[in-house]
Write a structure and sequence with these properties.
There is one protein chain. The protein is 72% helix and 0% strand. The protein has 295 residues and is mainly alpha-helical. The longest helix has 34 residues, at 70-103.
Length: 295
């Protein structure tokens, strides 16, 4: 099976777009992904959701249990609260870094890229244990606070919601920076230069030109960070305590400790439905912004 030549090139040549492949070749190329999606995601998730309603018999008791017991609603609320805070902090910290990566060159750009990519290439488990070293009772932070006289006794920093938010923000920061950087670096400098020539100040040029044009990258980064935050498991389990229980940890307890798979399926279904609803609302809200259009 051969690829068709470039539509706009009379000499043919190397294909550069998926639109140049025929239906058969396109299906062949995506077949492994489709098989993995069906076998590794749709089937197990569908079986989990099926069990939440039809095991041992057809009933919605598992879903009613979530609504009747305040603990589960509190965990669901806390999960979305932490995800919102982590996403907001990652955006506040990541946007300036993405701008710097896109606007500098040479060794400075390489240094910034290394600071972003090296943590991304490091295991999440290692980074989570690093936060334990920093925040434990005799850790680096407490020792620094005592030596500077800011406190006389070690503070309880580990196993708190603040520790979970700080660690998750650091772990997920590259997922916010890279999408924004990929969009900002493609914004021509002439646009900002033209705005400045027309009398706009630096801030006005940023808010009227750069920020609206970077919204697709911001949207991608926010969605990736927020969805990953909702399902984060390792970091909250290591640096969080009983007071920071999140949905992923709760689902893990139901499946590995209590072996209550039907209820775990109901928890997963509620979390997935709430996530999809918020993502739709978020995209609709951003679509109202001037200069941004849903793809």
């Amino acid at each position: 099976m051969r690829a068709k030549p470039l539509a706009g090139s009379p000499f043919g040549g190397r294909p550069t777009s998926a639109q140049e492949y025929g239906p058969g070749l396109s299906l062949l190329l995506v077949a492994p992904l489709v098989l993995l999606l069906v076998g590794g995601f749709l089937y197990p998730v569908g079986k989990l959701f099926w069990g939440s309603v039809f095991v041992p018999e057809a009933t919605f008791a598992n879903y009613a249990r979530i609504l009747q017991e305040p603990l589960f609603l509190l965990v669901l609320w806390r999960t979305f609260e932490i995800a919102f805070v982590v996403t907001a902090l990652a955006l506040l910290l990541g946007y300036p870094v993405a701008m710097a990566m896109a606007r500098v060159s040479g060794r400075t750009a390489m240094l910034i890229a290394a600071c972003v990519l090296i943590p991304l290439w490091t295991s999440v488990l290692v980074r989570s244990y690093a936060w334990i070293v920093l925040l434990q009772r005799n850790g680096v932070v407490n020792n620094a606070l005592i030596e500077t006289g800011l406190t006389g006794t070690p503070l309880r920093l580990l196993y708190t919601q603040g520790a979970v938010i700080a660690a998750m923000t650091q772990v997920l920061l590259p997922f916010m920076i890279l999408p924004i950087y990929s969009v900002v670096r493609n914004i021509p400098d002439d646009f900002v230069r033209a705005a400045r020539n027309l009398g706009a100040g630096s801030l006005q040029a940023f808010f009227r030109v750069t920020l609206p044009l970077s919204l697709p990258g911001v949207t991608a980064g926010v969605l990736i960070t927020f969805i990953l935050s909702l399902g984060f498991y390792i970091t909250p389990a290591l640096v969080g305590g009983p007071g920071t229980l999140m949905m992923s940890t709760l689902i893990g307890q139901q499946t590995t400790e209590l072996l209550d798979w039907p209820f775990a399926g109901a928890l997963a279904a509620v979390l997935l439905a709430a996530t999809l609803l918020l993502v739709i609302v978020f995209r609709r809200a951003l679509a109202l912004n001037k200069g941004f259009k849903l793809g």
